[in-house]
Structure formats: structure tokens, C-alpha cells
């Protein structure tokens, strides 16, 4: 076999001075040779995607498992020890709504993650890419409700049961994978920990992700679990409406899902946002409840967003929504090309976010139809938090 299990208790390999591998308890270490064989030497035919961290290949491992093999890009090369420490943390986190990490490969400069392969791809490539017509998957209302609840449970687990808790930082449709039974699995949790500190905040990767970013995180680098909850809210509305948070093919006033949802909510017409592809076969009360939960999660003030365990209860109907409490969503959708670099401040606990430093929403929601944005338009003069070196530019 090209791989081995290392155990602190087991003796053998764990006693060898191997640059950090000895400290690893539960991670399966794969040989680069096996990964090459599994992917037919990283044959482009086996490539199933490419994200901000690197390329993903489908591979057949020697033990018969099918894997998704994520080859991390050069920038994400940590030292062996640091890398394995983080991998060890990630591999211990297991839940039915989280993608399972089989192991990793850390030979030479290579940093590769080996995950359970999910047969039914990601939500962005199925439901949001045309649903049944394109993917052959029937996303009926019950399936969607199951997906929403599963994702909420996975995130609640990361936020509230894992110690220390994990903020995902990149909840979005491409990070929700579907297994054979269309049960959702959140992928890429803990990945931000594998990036060097200067890369972990919003970077050029944000281009495809911006619609999911909580304003306080995108603009000010304030990272709390509430930023994930905001992203979850956007995702929830995408699942119910089967449309992406931004769709430039629609007339201007319909392009931004959150804006549209708020408008319809105010007019008491939220049901219009539900995917027409369901052909009216859905529980309208439940679908509107889901959209309202999406609005609750995306409220401008992080403090007003519910925790993920509350979201689970709201989705399952165990708890009622107090609709009087929904306030306008925070929007940064008009930053078309946002680049922020600088250390992230993980603000803990959530309630301690310094709201005096919080910029008036209207200033980061300013019109941006031309030219380069001056940072002073974005930051309040008192801004002192994370995104120390930042630049905003608009390409529209
Ligand atoms: N475990 C997996 N099983 C099946 N397909 C996967 C798996 N992991 C990733 N993929 C596929 O690879 C694609 C790219 O994934 P990747 O995580 O690299 O990029 P992304 O999710 O689009 O962006 P990001 O880097 O921000 O997460 C996914 O959209 C999905 O189609
Ligand atoms: Mg991903």
C-alpha cells in the first residue's frame, strides 16, 4: 500500500524524525506516487474543478475508494509541520453534513488533500446551473428543504459543537456537495487555516464569492461566525429561488437576489421569488418561511442574525420566526472587483464586535458605476480593524 496510518501510540513510523509527521494522529498520509496513479498523472480528463486553492481531480485510490483530490496551489505551501497540524484538526471533525477528509500528501513541495468523492457534484453546477435540465437532478421542494436543513446542521456543528469553533469563511454554492441521495455535505471547512496569514482574508478569490460576503467582513475584516451565517442566508435564498445571488442577464432591478428579496418581502410578495421551475409544486408557507430566514441571516447588523442552531430550529419549524424583527439586509453587491488584503481579526465572541467602528451601510453601498474607489469612501474615519492594507477598485 502506498499509504500508512500514523499513531502516537503505535510506535513505528511515529518515532521517526520526519519533519512533523510524527505528531500526526489520525491522518492517512498518501504517497505522491499513489496520487499520481490515482489521477492518471493528473490527467486533464480527470480534472473536475478549479477553485481558489488549486485544482481538483477525480481519482481512484488503491483501496478502491473514489476520491476528490485537491492539489493546493503554490501560495498555500506551508511547512510540513504546520500543514499536518491543521490537517489533523480538520480530519478529526466529522459530521454527516461535512465532506470527509481521507488524508493528505505532503511530499516535497506537494500539498494535496484527499476527500471523499461526492457523486452529485456541487449546488452551483447543478441546481444553480439549470437544475433538472442541465444536471438531470430533480430538485423538488422536499429535496431542497432537506439540503437547506443539512447545510444548516453542518454549519451549526462547526460553529457550536467543534471546540475551538470553526468559522468556514467560504460558505457558497460551490462548497455544498451532494451525495448519491442528494444529502448535502459542506466542503472546504478549515481550509483557510492552511493558507498563510496574509492570504486568508478576502483576496482576488473574492471575485466569484463577493455576493456571499457579509459587509462587516468584506469591508472591515471583522470575522465572526455571523459572517458565515450571512453567507448561509444568501445560499438559502439561492436554493429556494434556484438563482445565483447575482445575475447580470436580468433587468437591473432584478439582478441582486438580496435586494429583490427585500423588495418582495416589503410588498408581502416573497412567494414570487420561489423557483418557477417547481411548477407551483411546493409548500408556499414553508418556502416563504425559508426566504424570511434567509433575510434574518443577512441582516446588516451581525448581532441581529440568528445563530446556526436557531436557524436549524427555524427551518424545521421547531421555532417560529418573529417577522417584526427582520431588518434590511447588508449589501455590498456593487463592489464588482473588491480586493482586500490584510490580517483577519477573528472577533470573539460574536457580541464583542466593536460596533462603534462599524461603517454606515450606505457608505459601503455607495454607487459604483465608474472609476476607482477611494478607501476613504469605504472606511469610517475611526476604522482601526483588520483590513489594514486594502484597496478597492471597481471595474464596472
Ligand atoms: N469532494 C468532492 N466531490 C466531488 N466533487 C468535488 C469535491 N470537491 C470539489 N469538487 C468539485 O470541484 C469543484 C472545485 O472545487 P474547489 O473547492 O476547488 O473550488 P470552488 O469550491 O469553486 O472554490 P473555492 O476554492 O473557493 O472553494 C467543485 O465545484 C466541485 O464541482
Ligand atoms: Mg470549494
Task: Report on the architecture of this protein.
- By secondary structure, the protein is of the alpha+beta class.
- The protein folds into 2 domains: 104 residues, 2-Layer Sandwich (Phosphorylase Kinase, domain 1), CATH 3.30.200.20; 271 residues, Transferase(Phosphotransferase), domain 1.
- It is 28% helix and 14% strand.
- It is built from 11 helices and 13 strands.
- A 7-stranded mixed β-sheet has the order 1-2-6-7-5-4-3. Strands 8-9 form a two-stranded antiparallel sheet.
- Helix 4 runs antiparallel to helix 6, helix 4 runs antiparallel to helix 9 and helix 6 runs antiparallel to helix 8.
- The N and C termini lie far apart (53 Å).
- The N terminus and C terminus are likely disordered.
- The protein binds adenosine-5'-triphosphate and magnesium ion.
- Adenosine-5'-triphosphate binds next to strand 3, strand 5 and strand 7.
Topology of this structure?
Layout: E1 3-5, E2 28-30, H1 32-38, E3 47-51, E4 54-60, E5 66-72, H2 80-92, E6 101-105, E7 112-116, H3 131-135, H4 141-161, E8 176-178, E9 184-186, H5 215-220, E10 222-223, H6 225-241, H7 257-266, H8 284-297, H9 308-316, E11 337-341, E12 345-346, H10 361-364, H11 375-378, E13 389-393
Parallel strand pairs: 2-6, 10-12
Antiparallel strand pairs: 1-2, 3-4, 4-5, 5-7, 6-7, 8-9, 11-13
Helix pairs in contact: 4-6, 4-9, 6-8
The protein binds adenosine-5'-triphosphate and magnesium ion.
Amino acid at each position: 500500500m502506498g499509504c500508512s496510518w500514523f499513531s502516537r501510540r503505535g510506535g513505528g513510523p511515529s518515532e521517526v524524525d520526519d519533519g512533523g509527521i510524527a505528531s500526526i494522529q489520525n491522518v492517512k498520509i498518501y504517497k505522491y506516487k499513489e496520487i499520481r496513479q490515482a489521477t492518471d498523472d493528473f490527467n486533464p480528463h480527470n480534472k473536475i474543478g478549479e477553485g481558489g486553492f488549486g485544482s481538483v481531480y477525480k481519482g481512484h485510490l488503491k483501496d478502491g475508494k473514489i476520491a476528490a483530490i485537491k492539489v493546493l496551489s503554490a501560495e498555500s505551501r506551508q511547512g510540513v509541520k504546520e500543514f499536518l497540524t491543521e490537517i489533523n484538526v480538520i480530519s478529526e471533525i466529522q459530521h454527516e453534513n461535512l465532506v470527509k477528509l481521507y488524508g493528505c500528501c505532503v511530499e516535497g513541495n506537494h500539498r494535496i488533500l484527499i476527500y471523499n468523492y461526492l457523486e452529485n457534484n456541487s449546488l452551483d453546477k447543478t441546481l444553480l446551473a439549470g437544475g433538472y435540465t442541465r444536471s438531470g437532478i430533480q430538485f423538488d421542494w422536499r429535496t431542497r428543504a432537506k439540503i437547506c436543513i443539512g447545510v444548516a446542521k453542518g454549519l451549526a456543528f462547526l460553529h457550536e459543537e467543534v471546540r475551538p469553533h470553526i468559522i468556514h469563511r467560504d460558505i457558497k454554492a460551490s462548497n455544498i456537495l451532494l451525495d448519491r441521495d442528494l444529502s448535502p455535505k459542506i466542503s472546504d471547512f478549515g481550509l483557510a487555516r492552511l493558507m498563510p496569514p496574509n492570504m486568508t482574508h478576502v483576496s482576488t478569490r473574492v471575485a466569484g464569492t463577493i455576493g456571499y460576503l457579509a459587509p462587516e467582513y468584506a469591508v472591515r475584516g471583522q470575522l465572526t461566525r455571523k459572517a458565515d451565517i450571512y453567507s448561509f442566508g444568501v445560499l438559502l435564498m439561492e436554493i429556494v429561488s434556484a438563482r445565483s445571488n447575482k445575475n447580470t442577464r436580468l433587468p437591473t432591478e432584478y439582478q441582486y437576489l438580496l435586494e429583490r428579496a427585500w423588495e418582495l418581502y416589503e410588498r408581502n410578495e416573497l412567494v414570487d421569488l420561489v423557483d418557477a421551475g417547481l411548477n407551483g409544486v411546493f409548500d408556499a408557507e414553508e418556502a416563504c418561511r425559508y426566504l424570511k430566514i434567509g433575510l434574518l441571516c443577512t441582516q446588516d447588523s451581525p448581532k441581529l442574525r440568528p445563530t446556526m442552531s436557531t436557524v436549524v430550529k427555524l427551518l424545521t419549524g421547531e421555532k417560529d420566526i418573529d417577522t417584526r424583527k427582520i431588518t434590511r439586509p447588508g449589501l455590498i453587491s456593487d463592489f464588482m472587483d473588491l480586493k482586500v488584503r490584510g490580517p483577519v481579526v477573528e472577533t470573539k465572541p460574536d457580541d464583542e464586535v466593536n460596533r462603534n467602528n462599524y461603517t454606515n451601510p450606505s457608505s459601503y453601498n455607495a454607487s459604483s458605476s465608474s472609476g476607482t474607489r477611494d478607501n476613504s469612501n469605504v472606511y469610517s474615519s475611526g476604522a482601526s480593524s483588520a483590513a489594514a492594507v486594502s484597496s478597492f477598485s471597481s471595474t464596472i
